[in-house]
Amino acid sequence: MVPEKALPEIDSPTTGAHAPATDAWVEAVRDLFAPSGRLAQKLRDFTQRAAQQEMAVAVAHAIATRAILVAEAGTGTGKTFAYLAPALLSGKRTLVSTGTRTLQDQLFHRDLPRLTAALGVPVKRALLKGRNNYVCWFHLERNLEEGRFLEPETGGWLREIRRFARHSQSGDKSECATVPENAPAWSYATSTRDNCVGSECPHFDDCFVFRARREALDAELVVVNHHLFFSDQQIKEEGVAGLLPACDVVIFDEAHQLPDLLPHYYGESVSTFEALRLAHDARVELSTLGGDFRDGVAVVDRFEKTTRDVRLALPLTGTLRGTIADLPQSAPFVAALVTWQAAASAVHQALAAVAERTELLAKLAEKAKRFARALDTWQQAAPTGNGEEVFWFDASAHHLTLNRTPLTATEAVRDLIAASPAAWIFTSATLTVGGRFDHFRHQMGLTRITEKPSTAARWESPFDYRRQALLIVPDAIPEPNAAGHREAVAQVARRLATAANGRTLVLCTALAAMRAVAETLRTQGGTDDAPFVVLTQGDAPKETLLARFTTTPRAVLVASHSFWEGVDVVGEALSVVVIDRLPFAPPNEPLLAAQIARMKRAGSDPFLTIQVPRAATLLQQGAGRLVRSERDHGVLCICDVRLATRGYGKVLWSSLPPFRRSRSLAVAENFLRTLFPEPRETAAPSGVHSDGAP
């Protein structure tokens, strides 16, 4: 055993007491990941990887110099440990933000305990989610007592939530196995910042939200998600106390999601769902004041009715999105919108008149004021927009959301990072397009930051992609917009799944295509003696579908957007990935359409500047579902000839892993038959593997 060495300390960026021992400390981090280093000593399954070691050194240097680091680490590099280890050893207050709650939970419950034990560093850590993830005793008990619900099953679910909360330490709904996370009951059992009464609450001492916040404020490392991080920044800008402590190190994992998400965080939205929640809370709170406040209840009832009327006045069916210019300027809808705004203003006035009676009434009055102001902004907006933001709607069968979104959040993010004394680290397996960081760095405003040093680095995956996998673009398949393309995709998937005895994930770019391909595979897939077990996104929660897929013989999983990333199946259970077409976002998607129009006005090429980079990132994510370990083998099939025939295809090709390539479906079938010569009778061994595993 190599004797353990104490790491040189680096001073806190907030004190600036003396210059950090940068070189010595960075070298100590390098030693951690050496073949005979501490991680090799303490972790039995540790494999020394040069790329992981180099990334850890780069992270350590960024922390020591309070720099910006953009780090792309290919699948299997071990990027999670590469950024966590230096952060833990630095002794600095660190915030880690993830793109998904799944990774957030994995980091906190699995990766951090393993790493802190191996390093022997007793770091106080905390997990913090948005308040709608935690049971609120006040609203749970009040709504159970009130007992008026639209859905008949809600009462039973709320009683189940109460049983869960009585024995839970965290109140985190993800730990409640008996109530689905998307159950409507959760809206009655959680709070929002607009209906939380804070220290005035009779349950304040037992509040799960404030307990989680206190732990976060006291922690040295806090794990959050992107939504909470940027929502908190917005709250701070509005003068409300932020949820998150000031940090010395900020790390974004799954950072490739940020450029598309950021404009939405800096925008504003109002919805009929939100309005109905406001009406419900106001009515219940007013009813506690007695009969003298019946007029206020009548105002709230009118607001609730106008909320329902505005969706009914929209002559659209199904789920649709569009800009303000797409909304009908017909008298019924315009009148309904005007009436809705007036009703919201009336609710504000009614609640403001009694706001001194309770803390909740004061908060609901402010909520109604913001709601009315947002609706007034919508009424005043020009159908053509103002060139800096887009007004757009999202309508489902029962609800309507009105959004105001800036075309870019580059300046806001640039200012946030430049003003911060922290080190900022952005990492993902897919940050480059064609091997270059230009798109990500520009979208994040990093190219315009001069206040602190900035660098970008890329580490290739350690996998032997040419040996492990084959990429095919079938030469006989129709173009994506041609008749028969969906049927052709289904037939390609059927042939590959037959050769692999199932083990196939089909990723579609649209729900309609997903349903069509799934139906064809159900009716024509496999044989009478050995049909495929076809699983489709939406049949069950994502984790349930993945569990069935990995344990069911001859399984084929057909899915859409939510499965393009975050699917981490190790082993032969997933050996074929079929992508139906290049994942270009629809050009009529409201925010993208406005961005395209602005770029055209500026004389730029939006297709090459926006659409191709976005497609490249998503294509990399989809392709990354195939090979998750050194032992994985399989076929990636992209059913879009444009990849091989269009000029922009070269950019997309260069963004993909260096698989062996072919245009022949027969070659792929033969390759799979060598891997799986016999039909599997039982499920193949498989498991979930983290990029952050050692």
Automatic annotation (TrEMBL):
Keywords: ATP-binding, Helicase, Hydrolase, Nucleotide-binding. Its EC number is 5.6.2.3. SUPFAM superfamilies: P-loop containing nucleoside triphosphate hydrolases. It comes from the Bacteria. InterPro entries: ATP-dep_Helicase_C (IPR006555), DEAD/DEAH_box_helicase_dom (IPR011545), DinG/Rad3-like (IPR045028), Helic_SF1/SF2_ATP-bd_DinG/Rad3 (IPR014013), Helicase_ATP-bd (IPR014001), P-loop_NTPase (IPR027417). It holds the Pfam family Helicase_C_2. Residues 38-314 form the Helicase ATP-binding domain. GO terms for molecular function: 5'-3' DNA helicase activity; ATP binding; hydrolase activity, acting on acid anhydrides, in phosphorus-containing anhydrides; nucleic acid binding. Its cofactor is [4Fe-4S] cluster. It catalyses: ATP + H2O = ADP + phosphate + H(+). Belongs to the helicase family. DinG subfamily. PANTHER family: DNA REPAIR DEAD HELICASE RAD3/XP-D SUBFAMILY MEMBER, REGULATOR OF TELOMERE ELONGATION HELICASE 1. This is DNA 5'-3' helicase. It comes from Hydrogenophilus thermoluteolus (Pseudomonas hydrogenothermophila). The lineage of its organism: Bacteria, Pseudomonadati, Pseudomonadota, Hydrogenophilia, Hydrogenophilales.
